[in-house]
Amino acid sequence: MNPPLVSSNVAAARIAIIGAGLGGLTLARVLHINGFRSTIYEAEPSPDARSQGGLLDIHEYNGQAGLKAAGLYDRFLDLVLPGEDAKRVVDRHATILFDQPASAAPTRPEVDRGALRRMLIDSLPADTIRWGHKLTRVSRLQEGNHEIAFKNGVTERTALLIGADGAWSRVRPLVSAAKPAYTGTTFMETSHPSGSTVSTAIETGTLMAVEPGKGILAHRYADGTVRVYVALQKPEDWFDTIDFAKRSSSLARLAHEFEGWAAELRALILNSETDLVIRPIHALPPHHHWARTETEGVTLVGDAAHLMSPFAGEGANLAIQDGAALGLALCEHRDNIEKALEAYENALFSRSAAFADRTARNHERFFGEHAPQSVVELFAAH
Ligand SMILES: Cc1cc2nc3c(=O)[nH]c(=O)nc-3n(C[C@H](O)[C@H](O)[C@H](O)COP(=O)(O)OP(=O)(O)OC[C@H]3O[C@@H](n4cnc5c(N)ncnc54)[C@H](O)[C@@H]3O)c2cc1C
C-alpha cells in the first residue's frame, strides 16, 4: 500500500466512500465523470447479496436532479415503470376515500430500487467498489487523514472519508454524538407472489388503509406481485412477543390487531406467502448537524447524515441529491477539500432539516388522530 496522502487537493487525495447505497454510488459516479477517482467500501459481499426490494418515486427537484448531475438521466428514464403511481386511500371498511389512477406522464416516476442501484453500479469502473468490506473501526490520523479498518482484516488510509453507510453509520460518530431514535412505528413487510390469490382490495399501484396507530399499505407491481407493509405504533419490545420465525402464527397475531377491519384488507396479511421482515422505523433528530471545524477530512451523505421516517418518500431522493451535491462541490473546490465540505454541508443542513420536518408531519398524518382523512388531504394536495 502507498503511504497516506495528506492532501487538500481532490485529485491527489485518496477518497474512501463507505457504503454502496444510492448516496455513495451517486457520489462516486459524479467524481468519476469529472475525472476523480474514489473507492467505495461495501459491507455486502456482492451486488446481489440482498434483495433491494420496493419501488421508489424519484422526484424532479432532488432525485432526478442528482441523476442528471451523474449523467444518468436518460438511463434512468429507461427504468421508469409506467402505471405504478396509482394511489388509493381506504378506511377500515375498505370504503374508497381517495382514488387517483395511474398517470400517463407521472411527475414522480416510479422505478425499482434494485434496478436503480444496479444502473449506478454498472456506471462505475469495475474496481471502484470493494465488496465484502465492512467498516469496523476508524482512527483519526493527522491533518484530516483517517485509518479505516474492515472486518476482513484489511486496513486503508484515506485523506477524505465519506460515510454513506446508512442508518447505523460507523462514520457518523466521528462528526456527531447523535443516534437514531425509534419513531414509535414499526413496519412488517411481506408479499404475495405474482398469480397468487391476494385480495380484492388492491387493484393497481398503492393502497393505503390507515387509522390512528395502525395501517395496511400495499403495492401491486406490474408483474402482479403484491408487497404489503403492516404498520403498527407500538413500543419496540411489543414486537419481541411475536415469533416471526413462525409465519402463520405471526400473521394471525398481526391480523388480530386489525379485528373489525374488512376481510379483504385482513386478507392482505393472512394470505401472504413470504416470511415477515420486521422494520422498526428510526430517525435522527430533524435538525441534525455538526461543526466543520472539528471534522477535518470527513463528512456524511444520505441516511448517515439525516435518517428520517419514510413518510414523505424523500430519503432515497435526498441520498442521490447529497451524493451529487458533494461530488459537484469537490469538483468546484478541487484545490481545497475543506472548502468543498463546508459548501456541501451548508446546503445539506438546511435542506435536510426542511424535509425531516415535513416527514415528521406526514408521519402524524398517516397514524395520528385524523387518519385516514389526513392522508386523503395529503394526496389530494399533491
Ligand atoms: C420501509 C421503507 C420505505 C422507504 N421508502 C422510500 C421511498 O419510497 N422513497 C424514498 O425516497 N426513500 C424511501 N425510504 C428511505 C430510503 O430507503 C433511504 O433513505 C435510502 O436508502 C438511503 O440511502 P443511503 O445511500 O443513504 O443508505 P443505504 O441505502 O442504507 O445504503 C447504505 C449502504 O452502506 C452499507 N453499509 C452499512 N454499514 C456499513 C459498514 N459498516 N461498512 C461498509 N458498508 C456499510 C450498506 O450495506 C448499504 O449498502 C424508505 C425506507 C424504508 C425503511
Mean pLDDT: 92
**Straight-line N-to-C gap:** 53 Å
Given helix and strand content, the structural type is alpha/beta
Unreliable runs, pLDDT <50, ≥5 residues?
none
Assess the beta-strand content as a share of residues. Answer: 15-25%
Gross morphology: globular
Ions, cofactors, ligands: which are bound? flavin-adenine dinucleotide
Give the helix level as a range of percent: 25-40%
For the largest sheet, list the strands in their spatial order.
5-4-13-14-15-12-16
Number of domains: 2
What's the CATH first level of the largest domain? Alpha Beta
Order of helical and strand elements: EHEEHHEEEHEEEEEEEEEHHEEHHHH
Question: Which features would summarize this protein structure in a list?
Answer:
alpha/beta; 7-stranded mixed β-sheet; single chain; D-Amino Acid Oxidase, Chain A, domain 2; 5-stranded parallel β-sheet; 382 residues; binds flavin-adenine dinucleotide; 2 domains; FAD/NAD(P)-binding domain
Task: Give a quick rundown of the structure.
The chain is an alpha/beta fold and 382 residues long. Helices cover 31% and strands 23% of the residues.
Task: Itemize the secondary structure elements and their pairings.
Elements: E1 15-18, H1 22-33, E2 39-41, E3 55-57, H2 60-69, H3 73-79, E4 87-90, E5 96-100, E6 110-112, H4 113-122, E7 129-130, E8 135-140, E9 146-150, E10 155-158, E11 160-163, E12 181-192, E13 205-211, E14 214-220, E15 226-233, H5 247-256, H6 263-270, E16 277-283, E17 298-300, H7 303-306, H8 315-332, H9 337-367, H10 373-380
Parallel strand pairs: 1-2, 1-11, 2-7, 4-13, 11-17
Antiparallel strand pairs: 3-6, 4-5, 8-9, 9-10, 12-15, 12-16, 13-14, 14-15
Helix pairs in contact: 1-4, 1-8, 2-8, 5-6, 8-9
The protein binds flavin-adenine dinucleotide.
Flavin-adenine dinucleotide binds next to helix 1, helix 7 and helix 8.
